[in-house]
Amino acid sequence: MPARSGSPTIPVAWSxxxxxxxxxxxxxxxxxxxxxxxxxxxxxxATEAVYSGELGHQYTxxxxxxxxxxxxxxxxxxxxxxxxxxxxYTFAGQRVAMRSGDQVSYxxxxxxxxxxxxxxxxxxxxxxxxxxxxxxxxHASGSLTADYGPGTTDYRFTGQRNEGTIGLYDYRARFxxxxxxxxxxxxxxxxxxxxxxxxNRYAYVRNSPLRYTDPxxxxxxxxxxxxxxxxxxxxxxxxxxxxxxxxxxWEETQDVGELVDQVMWxxxxxxxxxxxxxxxxxDTAIGAYGKLxxxxxxxxxxxxxxxxxxxxxxxxxxxxxxxxxxxxxxxLVGFGYSNNEMLKGLSQNYGVAAQAEIIADVGLEAGLSxxxxxxxxxxxxxxxxxxxxxxxxxxxxxxxxxxxxLRPTVVDVTLSRGLAETPHVxxxxxxxxxxxxxxxxxxx
Length: 444
Hints:
Blueprint: E1 4-5, E2 9-13, E3 23-32, E4 38-44, E5 48-52, E6 58-67, E7 76-82, E8 86-91, E9 94-100, E10 103-109, E11 115-119, E12 125-131, E13 137-142, E14 161-163, E15 168-170, E16 175-177, E17 182-183, E18 229-231, E19 241-242, E20 248-251, H1 254-267, E21 271-283, E22 286-299, E23 304-318, E24 322-335, E25 345-357, E26 361-374, E27 381-383, E28 394-405, E29 411-422, E30 425-429, E31 434-435, E32 438-442
Parallel strand pairs: 1-7, 19-31, 20-32
Antiparallel strand pairs: 2-5, 3-4, 3-6, 6-7, 8-9, 9-10, 10-11, 11-12, 12-13, 14-15, 15-16, 16-17, 18-32, 21-22, 21-24, 22-23, 23-29, 23-30, 24-28, 25-26, 25-29, 26-27, 26-28
């Protein structure tokens, strides 16, 4: 049996001798990691077999022989570990794909070469990670939080290997601590003695991590040193960023530019629309509802006009009115949507409505919905982050409603929370470019 295996299938062989009546059968057992022994083969005449295991586990096998007169020998043990063998593919000096077993994954980097997105061979996202300026993990999901399996890679910030057990990055010449933003060993060389910032032998890339990288642990590297302007914003996958438009910001300092960029995403709406909704429910102070909603949304950043419908369920808290039905219509304002494809899928909804009884129930409603998804490992709802705006997109609605209830009240205030699904969206590209806030910093 091999000491280490790169395949989930383990070839196991055993043999025995008996100088009396001869070996009749074998019993073979297996133990996974530090678990208990379990029977694998009982009273078999075979002397070899293949065991199917899983990556990242240690398997211990033991076998014993029984002769033709039912005498049983002692157990003999052997241990193997299944390791993940990963092969990387590079283009222009950067890792672009990886193969683990028969699974191929594609690595997408930002402007510094940091792994920020992993996709499978069907272009589906299987892992995401964002970083703080000095490399500390800001957000991670999917395969980039796993220890092994398809799409799992140790190469993270600026394409360097992350030594997860000690929390440091291996920059070849020395180790780097992303929490401190400093190397843990002094540099053995001074790249430019005439530059005062190079005299700090623990400093990382002259304390300018949004602009420079350090491929070897010795040298501060700039992607295009001959260009007097340095791109400071990464370009997301399958999204075209135009820089020759009115929405371009010129900033002299990196920190101010980043602040302006984020403030614009969080305060300026990215999209606008209108909706029509129908809702029925039952309510005994704490109740439930079901709804159908149609809407159109125009995204001025991506130039998309989208028509969509959604269905949802949820719970309510209000003055009891047994049962009710209502229709509503109003305006939608979205924040953080770099494209309207983000509207498809699950959303978590929060709302408040106030109605008065005149001839029928009429009133106002307001709400907020944010994009979410189901985390496969835990089944929990987790926020979905837009790669460009670097935020969890959300939609605010304000509208009027009308309907009837079986037990009308003078004034009815309802709080609601629910979950909706938008299975399909129909999008028209109104103009063929994306308006984006792109920051350029003048080089030194």
